[in-house]
Amino acid sequence: MDIIEPVKRLAEKATGIGFPSREEALACVRNVRPSRMKFRDDGYIPNNPKFPLLHYRKVLRFGRKHDPAAVLEKVFNVNGWGEAWRNGIYDYVHYHSMIHEVLGIARGSATLQLGGNKGKTVKVGAGDVIVVPAGVGHECLKASVSFLVVGAYPPAGTYNECRGSFQERNQAIKAIGRVAVPEQHPLYGSHHPLW
């Protein structure tokens, strides 16, 4: 997957085949109410004291005309969430202290641990989208062979990866409190508040 997806993405952009227009991508987004999950600081993973993790189940309907990963990239990009990547989710708990993240499931299914070791185990599948606030721990426990995620970030913030070490904790907690609410929702744009 590490070699195939980047080549596939370049071919889609160069040829336009499998790459949806703005209208085609946005037409795949359904109006879905998310599951809201709030996690406490467990002494290892700080989580986010203000914002809940949002899990939108089956929020995207993928047709056969376009590659699901390209649809997710287009939807996120149209709504101002860029720097998209295609891969899986790390199999160890981690969080980002200086930026929020959106994860869209393009293919396959997985079992994720959200909120750290004392958090919640959740099953996800193609068409699901998870908005992970800064500080919220996440990891993949088990994934199907075909599991593919598209991740992206809002324009404000800086990517970093924290693993819950004691040395990074105090700085991470301060940074989490400074991360602003994005101006646009990664699925619904400015028409819908994120939190």
From TrEMBL:
Residues annotated as domain Cupin type-2: 93-140
InterPro entries named in the record: Cupin_2, RmlC-like_jellyroll, RmlC_Cupin_sf, UCP019307_cupin, YjiB-like
Protein name: Cupin
Species for this entry: Nitrobacter vulgaris
